[in-house]
Amino acid sequence: MAESRNEVTIVDHRSGQEQKLAIDKGAIRAVELGKLKDPQTGQGLLTYDPALLNTAACKSAITYIDGDQGILMYRGYPIEQLAEQSHFMEVAYLLLEGELPSQTQLQAWENEVTYHTMIHENVKKFMDGFLYDAHPMGILVSTTAALSTFYKDAKKIDDAPSRHLQKVRLIGKMITMAGYSYRHSMGLHYILPDNELSYAGNLLNMMYRMAEPKYTPNPVLEKALDLLFVLHADHEQNASTNVMRCVGSSRIDPFTATSAAAATLYGPLHGGANEAVLVMLKEIGTKDKIPAFLKSVVAGEGKLMGFGHRVYKNYDPRAKIIKKVAHEVFQVTGKNPLLDIALELERIALEDEYFVKRKLYPNVDFYSGLIYQAMGFPVEMFPVLFAIGRTVGWLAQWEEMLLDPEQKIARPRQIYTGAGKRDYVPLKKRG
Ligand code: SDX
Predict the structure, then answer these.
(1) CA distance 218 to 112
(2) C-alpha torsion 104→79→389→220, nearest 10
(3) Domain residue spans in the chain?
(4) What is the pLDDT of residues 248-257, one digit of tens each?
(5) In angstroms, what is the span from residue 340 Cα to ligand 1's centroid?
(6) What is the pTM of this model?
(7) What is the CATH number that goes with domain 68-270+379-403?
(8) Is 340 a catalytic residue?
């Protein structure tokens, strides 16, 4: 019979077994390999894929990335069009609901999120327990988990209206927790949300309002921050989203799962990279030191932070958009002196064989830190800003996982490389 195009045939030479595997959307079902048994042990064949480099852990309709082409789409809409024509609250609705909202739906959605920006007064006492110089990401991770104790109904994850309420609460309260964590680190009193402001404007209000009766955000900075939330909203199965799905698969509430995702984002290889980019640019100091720095990277003495990506083997489309916005922001804030070093570093790296051969291009973090710093955000707040945007993606992916009939509690297999069976040796008899 002619072999079907969408099929592979695997011959297991240990047993002579032959297994036909269907190819569905470019993938085979790993569990089917289990039918190929080791004639000695009877164990089914496993796939070994450390860090899941070539494993689809789920099916998702939320975000699409083509790493070779540098394409990013949210629910089919190119990120460039959303960046140009949409805004974060609308993009949040799109990612969570799957369609762009009507005017009425958008208005209702924005009102709901705005209505849920307040947090319980006890959270302030909780936050006050942190040292003055506690990293705001550490505060955000723990406070998000703590919020699960305030909203006991969040455990009703099979109830759609409850899920919706928790999503609205988390999105609304992220900016307030971020604002409070910043004020705590500055030794300043907490500022309540001003629900007449936009989502991004309200964060700026809760961070920067001082004695004035009403805070008025700079419209250019407010728009730039909103756009940065859009660009960070979702990104397929990145490390923190993978954790959101994995932790969520144990059917815990979304506050606790979001806290785990935020903890993952905190890492310097993920959401902590834009903070690391600024540290790197400061260490380089001047343009004439760039060749020596790149030489040390090529020698394996460190990484060019903000470069490289697991999926993008082309320019991260978000980095292109951020680079453009940077110029608009710098017209208001004054140019970040580190920009010239970043631009020269990018220029030289993109001509360097080491980076070209490995298809290492600037990613979303290479320029975002420069904007955040120019806008007056302390470096420690950068991953917090990333988490605010990505909370929408984490929640969309969490709900998609919960509603996927093929998903169950995540529990990967392993290849055991430890000691064989041996008997216990009493302490007296040990060497
Ligand atoms: C984000 O997954 C996502 O989608 C993440 C994200 C999102 O929106 O959620 O896009 C956000 O996390 C962006 C990435 C931010 N991190 C950084 O900028 C840190 C610097 N980048 C690298 O650490 C690295 O590029 C990663 C972690 C981003 C990706 O690493 P991979 O896919 O595991 O690639 P790798 O480490 O296997 O690298 C392949 C080769 C290696 O060299 P060789 O062993 O082949 O000689 O490229 C080298 C690496 O050493 N390499 C780098 C490098 N990145 C990869 N060398 C120098 N500088 C770098 N930045």
Answers:
(1) 24
(2) -80
(3) 1-48, 68-270+379-403, 273-374
(4) 999 999 999 9
(5) 23
(6) 0.94
(7) 1.10.580.10
(8) no
